[in-house]
């Protein structure tokens, strides 16, 4: 009985908090990407072809600072000059600061979370490499209207690559241009 009461209270809290949230769906174009592997002070980076992300976020309706969370899925992207493809799936907390009280307003955004790291068999050498997730960070500036927003940002996905018992640090950094739509007004 106690378990049922706790579960019911959590469900009420969850659905009550959702009613006070603003929901967004968004798409991003990633440009100018660099993929870097580093180990014991040595590093090598490779350019990455442009890629696309799709995602969703929820934000509190508080003003001028809103808090929330979100997730994105990167469509696998290739290293330039290669058939090796990879992607990250970040899950994050976000904060957005309005720079104006107007309905149409600029804002600053920051995101911090954890991401999963995935790649095709060409990237992992047919499974010889083990991939691990890591820290996700992003900052951006945007402009929001009643129904849509646009955002320019800089994002970094971190992860790890394990080969022969050694862990290499992986970092994917890039500029992003995003466009999003509010689902509830």
Describe what this molecule looks like in 3D:
The chain has 185 residues and is mainly β. It has one domain (22-182): Porin (Beta Barrel), CATH 2.40.160. The protein is 12% helix and 67% strand. The protein is built from two helices and eleven strands; from the N terminus they run H-E-E-E-E-E-E-E-H-E-E-E-E. The protein has helices spanning 2-19, 121-124, and strands at residues 21-39, 42-48, 51-60, 65-74, 77-78, 85-98, 105-119, 130-132, 134-144, 148-163, 166-182. The N and C termini lie far apart (38 Å).
Mean pLDDT: 90
Q: What's the helix-strand series?
A: HEEEEEEEHEEEE
Percent helix, as a range, is: 10-25%
- Secondary structure category: mainly beta
Q: Could you say which overall geometry the principal axes of the C-alpha atoms support?
A: globular
Cα-to-Cα separation, first versus last residue: 38 Å
List its salient traits.
2 helices, 11 strands, mainly beta, 12% helix, Porin, globular
Short summary of the structure?
The chain is built from two helices and eleven strands; from the N terminus they run αβββββββαββββ. The mean pLDDT is 90. A hairpin with a 4-residue loop joins strand 3 and strand 4 (65-74).
Q: How are the SSEs placed, and which strands pair?
A:
Layout: H1 2-19, E1 21-39, E2 42-48, E3 51-60, E4 65-74, E5 77-78, E6 85-98, E7 105-119, H2 121-124, E8 130-132, E9 134-144, E10 148-163, E11 166-182
Antiparallel strand pairs: 1-2, 1-3, 1-11, 3-4, 4-6, 5-6, 6-7, 7-9, 8-10, 9-10, 10-11
């Amino acid at each position: 009985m106690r378990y049922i009461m706790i579960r019911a209270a959590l469900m009420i809290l969850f659905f009550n908090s959702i009613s006070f949230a603003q929901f967004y769906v968004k798409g991003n174009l990633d440009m100018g990407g660099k993929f870097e592997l580093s180990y014991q002070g040595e590093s090598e980076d490779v350019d990455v072809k442009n890629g696309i992300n799709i995602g969703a976020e929820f934000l509190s309706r508080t003003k001028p600072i809103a808090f929330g969370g979100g997730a994105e899925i990167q469509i696998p992207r290739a290293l330039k000059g290669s058939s090796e493809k990879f992607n990250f799936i970040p899950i994050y907390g976000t904060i957005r600061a309005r720079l104006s009280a107007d309905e149409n307003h600029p804002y600053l955004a920051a995101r911090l979370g954890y991401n999963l790291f995935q790649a095709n068999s060409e990237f992992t050498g047919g499974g010889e490499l083990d991939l691990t997730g890591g820290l996700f960070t992003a900052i951006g500036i945007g402009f929001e209207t009643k129904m849509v927003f646009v955002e320019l940002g800089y994002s970094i996905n971190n992860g790890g690559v394990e080969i022969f018992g050694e862990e290499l640090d992986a970092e994917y950094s890039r500029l992003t241009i995003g466009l999003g739509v509010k689902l509830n007004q």
